[in-house]
Amino acid sequence: MNKIERVEKYLFDFFENNIHDFDLFYRTTNEQRNEGIYRLENGNEILDFLFNVHSNIYENLKFKKLIPSRFTTPNDLLVFLRNFKKYIENNSFLLDEENVNGRTSYVITHFIEYKNKIIKAIDYSFEIYDLQDENMLIYQQLRHHLITENIELFIQNLKSIFSSVSYEIAKQSEGYFHANVFLILKLLGFDIIPEDTTNIGRIDAVIKLSNRIYILEFKFSKDTDDSDKAYNQIIENEYASKYLLENKPIYALGISFNEKVRNIRNYKFEKLN
Length: 273
Fold this sequence. Notes:
The structure is a single chain. This protein is about 55% helix and about 15% strand. By secondary structure, it is an alpha+beta fold. It folds into 2 domains: about 5-130, no CATH class; about 135-270, Trna Endonuclease, Chain: A, domain 1. The chain has a 5-stranded mixed β-sheet with strand order 1-2-3-4-5, sandwiched between helices. The longest helix has 29 residues, at about 5-30. The two termini are about 40 Å apart.
């Protein structure tokens, strides 16, 4: 599901869950306008405002598919949402709770409630579009693969991320790859410890999950596979011994970065205890 499809789904679900109450409020207010809304100052303007909000939802937004059935392009939808929000905000001055009495206050308070919900839904639609683009799927998968111990797919996703980095930006050093792996995993919310020291060495990175621990060692070379070397360093220096008291499964992950391919060359992964 791409980002505009997520926006469509969110808007449809939002209005499916909220439109019935708003629709009932609209119809009741319209049917009883002589006893209710017309008693308010600017009652005609408020009713017009309510009518326009209601009709815009039913004519433009209350559909499973908005593109291309209601809007030609994603940008057309975004422009409509932006203008719809602006229209609501520019007319919100009509909903002044201080100028109503007990017999008519329900019209204002209910309209304000629905108006605020609609604005929040529009704002969240823009968040979905701006923040949850297609690249986020890789990061979500990366987190899932590490949690479920699917290291093969974890490495594949990590390689895909490094492949997206421009040739001019990539710095060819172990520190560059080490720092970026740390940053990626930290942003995903993992408890990751860089350069963790033991009595006989320093571990490149340790990832602690609720039910397992990963010990990571990185090696960088011109054009060789040093994943065995990275893995063997974890074993020979007994890095796992520091975490045995936590009574969790411990895994060693040696990763070989390569200058020629500017990416991960290979990896070695084993459970240690």
